[in-house]
Amino acid sequence: MLRMKCAKMGFKSGNILMASLLNLLLKGPSYGYSLVEELGELGIDQSSIPYAIVYRLLRDMESENLITSHWEIEDSGPSRRMYFITDKGKKHLEKWLVNAKANLKIMENLVSSIEKSIYEEKGGE
Predict the structure, then answer these.
(1) Which helix (H) or strand (E) holds 119?
(2) Which CATH fold would you assign to the domain 11-121?
(3) For FRET with 59, which of 1, 85, 87, 104 sits at 20 to 30 Å CA-CA?
């Protein structure tokens, strides 16, 4: 089952990681280790994300047909599973983007309201 229930694909951490991986795959096929390394480009501290979590999420995404994969066998070095985004994955990412933008607006409004309330409570300091 696709993990879209919490906040309709909003800011739940698993949804952010899924969207991040799909976004990275939009650039082109890649393999798991490389995807984790590329998370840093998006400002995600890859050292805080266990590789096992990423690989489990990639398997889940593949079972939902958001991505596909196949093994690449190299003449030298280990074989690697290459991941590719599907059309369904692109549509999922588009939906995530719409929801994230709406949630971002809510977050901005909430932050602004909290800041205003705290400022007023302190007597306009």
Answers:
(1) helix 87-121
(2) Arc Repressor Mutant, subunit A (1.10.10)
(3) 104
